[in-house]
Write a structure and sequence with these properties.
Helices cover 34% and strands 20% of the residues. The chain is built from 15 helices and 26 strands. Strand 25 and strand 26 form a beta hairpin. The longest helix is centred in the C-terminal third of the chain and has 34 residues.
């Protein structure tokens, strides 16, 4: 059986990331970028697909783990009958010696550091290394290039090379094994460095400096966080996850660090999330701005403007980390899948879909950054004008919707509401920010969209908005109608929609995106509850006086976090298992929004209580 998703930690350098199991094995690592081919792929198969294990040789050893405060430095303490050790795992941030790499923008190296420190007694440690480049399709040529006192193992295959420094590893049946003993007070360091095979072997890192500088970098970033106000620890860790998933050079925010972790174990709902969805990134942007991270907001704004520049008709719903457009989807035969869930996919065919809501997400994001970023040359506004003209040309076109259905396109209510939001933000830009544009025309389009939504997207008999025109089904995306300002949170139409969502989409207390049995998406099988949607419901409750319900649901969702505070895309409330890609940006940003909503509701409730006391005193 594969290790459950929730048993993994993430370490990373804001360019790529590794998943480290609680058994001490790195089972997923793509180098040098999040969307590069895997070097270790056991997460989507078994050890044969590549992994790097470092743990006590005693199989009965027990462990506990934690991140050092406000960092992604993972510290695992192992205890055996003979002693205790700490294993510190991290991927160092760019240091002073890498200035040339940073300026040139080239991917010259990517590092993983694993430090073993003896705490008590003596502990025999075991390493197992299986390097499998290119999604386990390429077995490397490996050779020893170091000395007896300073072993160095080199792995090369095509464009990729790895160098491993530390205790000697010996070949054994297409893997490398080694053991060493660590006594109390001793330290043993192991380093793995990826680099392009045509370049010279990079120098080793100064491990003490790498650990210290990396922890300073993360803590400095965390100190800039505006006080959350509710669920502080969960919010801080979520914001750190969002920063981890933001590429350091390009500013692109990947949806998750993995591909093809299943939405249904053993099923075919397995997708590649290592790309930048405009929708997810725009929502992440709002959360970062709210918590004081204007530098990141500006970096993402610049990424967005580069990515969508050109013909507005070519705008996609997702891009590569640097704005790449070609994300062709293909199936990876060399990775059998997590828990037998196949196929494993690289690329994402949804990049070719028309999803009307993306116009709204982009306009909302740029509206948010308008007040914290400069736009002296007017480039952003001119691009928005072009996007609005493109959106207007497709007002009546059915689309694939926020859930990226792979069946018949529909007139989704959420998509129409996001188009409404696009023109609403354009009107606001003129009315409040002094931008120039055909505001009367935009007001007319906004009214036209609202009329279309009310006629086709609202079912008066049910007292609820519906998923798309001509159905009585609802989906959790309807909760965003209030979030974008289309309708008030406490409007009777919205409250009726919430009631309908509660009746049909709750499963053991958490929300599904929609009823898969309604066969709207064209994909076989079922899926688990969607964590972001449940957080959206928390937000709705908090805005409508249901603070106790909001808090209860928030606490229930947070109980599914890993011991390190991480969330995947989905969860099975019956077993506690996490499902889908991991860790997922949308889950964590929805957590932040939900916590902010609860904090605001508590503040409003406290103000109301104080006012009531004051009135009583006057009486």
């Amino acid at each position: 059986m594969p290790r459950p998703i929730e048993k993994y930690a993430i370490i990373g350098d804001c360019r790529t990331a590794a998943l480290v199991g609680d058994d001490g094995s790195i089972d997923w690592l793509c180098m040098p970028r999040f969307d590069s081919a895997s070097v270790f792929g056991a997460l989507l198969g078994d050890a044969e697909q590549g992994h790097w294990s470092l743990r006590p040789a005693d199989d009965s050893a027990t462990s506990s783990r934690a991140y050092t405060a406000d960092t992604f430095t993972l510290v695992t303490r192992w205890a055996t009958a003979d002693g205790e050790v700490e294993v510190t795992d991290l991927m160092p941030q760019t240091g002073p010696g890498d200035l040339e790499d940073l300026v040139s923008g080239s991917d010259r190296r990517s590092d993983v550091i694993r430090r073993v420190r003896g705490i008590r007694g003596r502990v025999r440690m075991r390493q197992e290394l299986r390097v499998r480049f290119d999604y386990a399709s390429s077995l490397p040529w490996m050779r020893q290039v170091g000395t007896a006192d300073a072993p160095v193992l080199l792995a090369v295959a095509g464009p990729d090379a790895l160098v491993v420094r530390g205790p000697r590893l010996a070949p054994h049946d297409h893997r490398h094994l080694g053991e060493f003993t660590v006594a109390a007070g001793e330290t043993v360091d192991v380093q793995l460095t990826w680099y392009p095979a045509h370049r010279p072997v990079p120098d080793p890192r100064d491990v003490d400096d790498a650990i210290a500088s990396t922890e300073r970098w993360w803590r400095s970033w965390a100190r800039s966080c505006a006080a959350p106000g509710a669920y502080d620890e969960a919010v801080r860790r979520s914001l750190l996850v969002l920063r981890m998933l933001t590429h350091e050079e390009t500013g692109g925010i990947v949806a998750a660090a993995t591909t093809s972790l299943p939405e249904e174990f053993g099923g075919a709902r397995n997708w590649d999330y290592r790309y930048v969805w405009l929708r997810d990134a725009a929502l992440t942007l709002e959360a970062l701005i709210h918590h004081g991270y204007t530098t990141e907001a500006e970096a993402w704004r610049q990424w967005l403007l580069r990515a969508i520049a050109g013909d507005p008709a070519d705008v996609q719903i997702m891009y590569g980390l640097a704005g790449e457009r070609r994300l062709a989807e293909w199936e990876v035969s060399t990775l059998p899948g997590h828990a037998g869930s196949s196929p494993v996919r690289v690329g994402n065919a949804a990049s070719e879909q028309y999803q009307a809501d993306v116009f709204g997400e982009v306009m909302i994001a740029l509206d948010s950054t308008r007040h914290v970023s400069a736009d002296h040359d007017g480039f952003s506004w001119s691009l928005q004008l072009a996007l609005l003209r493109e959106a207007e040309a497709h007002l009546d076109q059915p689309d694939s919707g926020i859930w990226e259905i792979r069946a018949t396109d529909r007139h989704f209510t959420h998509s129409r509401a996001m188009l409404w939001a696009a023109f609403d933000r354009a009107v606001c830009a003129v009315e409040h920010d002094g931008r120039e544009g055909p505001v009367d025309h935009w007001r007319a389009i906004r009214a036209q969209l609202a009329d279309r939504i009310e006629r086709g997207g609202f079912d008066a008999a049910l007292g609820s908005y519906v998923q798309y025109e001509g159905t009585t089904e609802v989906d959790a995306a309807l909760l965003q109608l209030a979030q974008v300002g289309y309708v008030a949170y406490d409007d009777p139409r919205m409250l009726g929609t919430v009631a309908r969502i509660e009746q049909t989409l709750l499963r053991d207390g958490l929300l599904r995106r929609y009823r898969t049995e309604a066969d709207v998406d064209g994909v076989p099988g079922d899926e688990n509850t969607f964590l972001a949607c449940s957080f959206w419901l928390v937000e709705q409750y908090a805005h409508t006086g249901r603070l106790d319900d909001a808090t209860a649901l928030m606490d229930r969702i947070l109980a599914f976090r890993t011991d390190l505070g991480l969330l995947a895309e989905q969860a099975d409330p019956r077993t506690g298992r996490q499902a889908g890609n991991f860790p997922q940006a949308l889950s964590h940003l929805a957590l932040v929004r939900a916590a902010d909503a609860i904090a605001a509701a508590r503040g409003t409730a406290a103000e109301g209580a104080q006012a009531s006391v004051a009135r009583s005193s006057r009486a």
